[in-house]
Amino acid sequence: MEVVYEDNHIIIINKAPGEIVQGDKTGDVPLVDIVRQWIREKYAKPGNVFCGVVHRLDRPVGGLVVFAKTSKALARMNEMFRNGEVHKTYWAITRNMPPKSNDRLTHYITTTERNNKSYASPTPKNGAKEAILGYKLMASSDRYHLLEVNLETGRKHQIRVQLSAIGCPIKGDLKYGDKRSNPDGSISLMARRISFTHPVSGKHIDVTAPLPADNLWQALGAAVQDTSAENQHE
Fold it and tell me: Which of 93, 99, 114, 201 has the greatest CB tally within 10 Å of its CB?
């Protein structure tokens, strides 16, 4: 388990793809239980240890997840997420070049529980929820493209279904139209950065997750750094 930030009230974990944040019907041990046990052992705490789930990431997605270590932090973080006061940045790798180098996408999403899948419509539909995100193209290789995505709403599978709707399914995401799975069962989407005002101390928290060790992530990440360096020298 990789801890990227911790204090008395919150703990931020870099979740590995394949881990579940909360328990589900698979019966697999969820990340919240692993974090709770880690806190219990690190601080030699007897009895129950508080660890509250603030938000979730899809199972095949990696990156930053915030947990609350106190009930006060949990209540305030929940409110901050509801009010859009937590800023999350995602990185996604696609096989197809997006139609524009940056854009703001609006769709209307419906979800079918039967197959746990979301569907995006360009126009409002009965029961559909508005979904908005912004993306920009960060780097490209011969065959793949790295996008930075910022969510304005939080809908189920939102990034996956909205990028698929513009012809750019995420690498490895068979559910939303990619043609091949990744060897480890992940999809090439990660919660890269999160920033917010601390729910108790009021200080600014801004955390970035390290990129996966995977060669493609590393190569595209290096290309982003090279581009930033060039822009600074201009």
Answer: 93
Q: How far apart are CA 212 and CA 184, in angstroms?
A: 12
The amino acid at residue 81 is: F
Dihedral sign (CA 108, 76, 64, 84): positive
Q: Which two three-digit tokens encode residue 64?
A: 């930053």
Give dist(CA 77, CA 71) in Å, integer. Answer: 10
Helical spans, DSSP H, in 52-96: 71-82
pLDDT lower than 50: segments of the chain: 233
d(CA 155, CA 120): 11
Inter-CA distances, 183 with 113, 158, 159, 171, 172, Å: 27, 23, 21, 11, 9
Residue 150: count of CB within 10 angstroms of its CB: 16
Count of alpha carbons within 13 Å of 164, Cβ hemisphere only? 23
Number of continuous H segments (helices) and E segments (strands) in the chain: 4, 11
